[in-house]
Design a protein that fits this description.
The chain has 79 residues and is mostly helical. It has one domain (18-73). Helices cover 59% and strands 0% of the residues. It contains three helices and no strands. The chain has helices at 18-33, 35-43, 53-74. The protein is extended.
């Protein structure tokens, strides 16, 4: 059974230096954890949660595998 779930992330192009990814991640984590930043996101219907670059990478790979199979089986096409 396929159970879709929505999530969002801020990503950088492949090959972005790790120190830049870490600096952006640290800044985003601070915003999410701050009372004002977290509240603003929740007011827009988001459920803010910080995930490390490795966690986001794993989510993307998981969803590509899961939904890629559905697309293949359905013969879905983008016109």
């Amino acid at each position: 059974m396929l159970t879709p779930e929505g999530w969002g992330a801020i990503v950088a192009p492949a090959g972005t230096p790790r120190d830049i990814v870490q600096r952006v991640g640290t800044a985003l984590q601070a915003i999410i954890q701050s009372p004002d930043g977290g509240e603003r996101l929740r007011a827009q219907g988001a459920m803010p949660k910080y995930g490390s670059p490795d966690i986001v990478d794993a989510l993307i790979r998981r969803d590509l595998q899961k939904f890629g199979e559905v697309v293949k089986q359905s013969n879905a096409r983008i016109d």
